[in-house]
Specification:
four-stranded mixed β-sheet; 4 strands; 2-methylcitrate dehydratase PrpD; MmgE_PrpD
Length: 397
Amino acid sequence: MIADLADWAASLEVDDADRDVARTALVDTVAVTLAAADDPVVELTEDLPEALRWAAVGHVLDFDDVHLPSTSHISVVCVSATLAAGGGARAYLAGAGVMARLGTALGWSHYSSGWHATCTAGAPAAAVAAGVALGLDADGLKRAMALAVPAAGGVQRAFGTSGKCLQVGFAADAGVRAARLAAAGASADPAALDQWFALAGGSTEPDLSGPALPEKPAVKLHPCCYAMQRPISAARTLRDGGLDPADVERIVVSTPEAGMQPLIHSFPRTGLEAKFSMEYAVATALLDGFPGRAHFTDAAAARPAVRRLLERTEVRTSPGGGDDLMAGETGIRVELAGGGEAETALDLPRGHPGRPASEQELTAKVASCVGEERAGEVAGISWEEAPGVLRAAFPAP
C-alpha cells in the first residue's frame, strides 16, 4: 500500500503549475534558512551532514511553510533533501507529494496523539526526494523509503526546544542517507513501510490523485507555529483599530481545541517557547503589531508588558468542530479599563491557501529574512545555485 507512493513518484510528470509551487517553496525555504544564520543551532550542527544542517537551521525560526492537510512542514524537509542530493524541482515535488499524501493518510489522530508528522512522514519523503535526485527507479525508491523507516519518528514534546528543529534535520538526513544506501545496492523489504504505517496509527490508503502537491503549502508571515498565525492576525485587527495594550484588563480567547494541539507553553520562558504559545501570540500582536524575528527572543518573551498580558489571558477551547489546526475560528474578546470591550474573530490567516499572501507580502518576507540588498538574489535563485548559496552561508569547519 505505502510502497505505491514510490511507483507514483517514479512516474511523476510535472507541469508549469507544479514548477511554480516548487519555486515558491525553494525561495521561501532558502530565505528562512539564511535568516537563521546567527542562531545557535548553526554552531550545534557544524560537523553534521548538509541535509541535517540545512533542515535544522531552516526550521529553527519556525518561519518555513506548512502543508495543512498533512500537518507537516513539507518544504524544509524536501527542499533540504533535494539540494543535498543535487536535485531540482521534480525531485522536490516527488518528495513533497509523497510527504503530503503520507501525512494526510496518517491523519489528524496521528498528530493529535503527539507525533510530529514533519518527522514521521518526512523521513520516507526525504528518501524519495533524494532518490529521484539520484536517479533511482521505483524499486530503488521503495528500498530507500523502507531504509528510512527507523528514523521516521519525532514528538511534539520537543516543541519550544532545539529538539524540534533537530529532529526535523534528523528526518531529512535519514532520507538522504537511505537513498544513497539504496543507490549503492542496500536491500530492504518494502513491506516494512506498511508495518510502520500501521504502528504509527495510519489506516487510510494514500490518495494518489490530483497534482504533484495536493493543496499548496501555507506561507507564514510570522516566525512561529502556524497555529499562532490566526490569533496574531486577529489580535492585529484590534490593535489596528486603536486598542491600547495598557488599557487591557482581561483577554478571553475562544478557539477549537484542535488549534491548541501544538501550543503547549502558556507562560513561555524563552523565545523558542514563545513560538508555541497562544497567550504570547495575542500579547505580541497587541504590543508589537506585526511580530517578526525580534519578537521571538528570550528578551522579548521576558518583557514586563508581555508578562502582564499573559497573566490576564484566558483560553477557552471548544471540542469538535473539525480535525485540523484551522478548524472553526478564533475569537478574541478584550475587556478594557473603564468597562469597555473590544472583540474580533477570524477563520483564516493571511498566507493560508484560502487567503494567499500577496506578492508584496512574499517579497517583504524575503527581504526581512536576507535584507533588501540580497532579496533580489534569493527571489531569483535556481535549484542549481541554491546549494552553493547555503554552503557559503554555512561552511563546513
